[in-house]
Task: inverse folding
């Protein structure tokens, strides 16, 4: 359990140690309300909140409060969007995160665009040993759960890295950048081969000013 707690904290806060606390400011007036909303909105889908507290061992990180100040449109005054990063699901090497935003006096989940892919294998009955023969982009979906995700205040980006097995040679990974009040998909890649190497067969990159 101690090792899992250590791994979780690394996933949640890797790369955030150098970020100023004034950038990732706590928002006490809405944090308690965010917790209440999370409990009510995800009583079955996510692990019970009290169990998550016990798992992390430190309630000040559950949720992690993110404050982003931006100009919603030209000549408008700056506005601040408060977002709360909740641990939702937990496993040996993958942790599902949900982001709740507080906007217009209410909470709602942040949605993230993700590619839907058609992946084909040389031997579809044994994907662990078979070569990838094709990866085709079919469509996009809106996801409210990101795996092994974290926020970087310096670049205003959220990144995710979903391991398809423990060693992480097969995976999907994405980056979403905050722009005009939304997180836009900036890049996405997938390595669908279980060959011990990191060589993605699918890469997507969007230019976002």
Result:
């Amino acid at each position: 359990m101690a090792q899992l707690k250590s791994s979780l904290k690394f996933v949640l806060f890797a790369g955030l140690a150098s970020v100023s606390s004034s950038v990732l400011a706590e928002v006490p007036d809405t944090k308690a309300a965010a917790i209440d909303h999370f409990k009510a909105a995800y009583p079955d889908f996510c692990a019970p909140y009290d169990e998550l507290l016990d798992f992390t061992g430190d309630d000040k990180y559950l949720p992690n409060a993110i404050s982003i100040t931006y100009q919603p449109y030209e000549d408008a005054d700056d506005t601040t969007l408060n977002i709360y990063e909740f641990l939702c699901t937990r496993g040996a090497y993958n942790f599902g995160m949900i982001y709740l935003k507080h906007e217009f006096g209410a909470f709602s989940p942040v949605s993230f665009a993700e590619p839907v892919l058609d992946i084909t294998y040389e031997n579809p009955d044994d994907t662990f040993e078979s070569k990838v023969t094709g990866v085709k982009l079919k469509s996009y979906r809106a996801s409210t759960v990101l795996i092994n995700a974290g926020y970087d205040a310096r670049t205003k980006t959220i990144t995710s890295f979903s391991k398809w097995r423990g060693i992480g040679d097969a995976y999907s990974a994405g980056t979403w950048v905050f722009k005009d009040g939304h997180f836009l998909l900036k890049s996405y890649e997938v390595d669908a081969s279980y060959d011990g190497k990191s060589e993605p067969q699918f890469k997507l990159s969007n230019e976002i000013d």
User: Anything to note?
Assistant: Residues 2-205 form one domain. The longest strand covers residues 79-90. Residues 28-41 form the longest helix (14 residues).
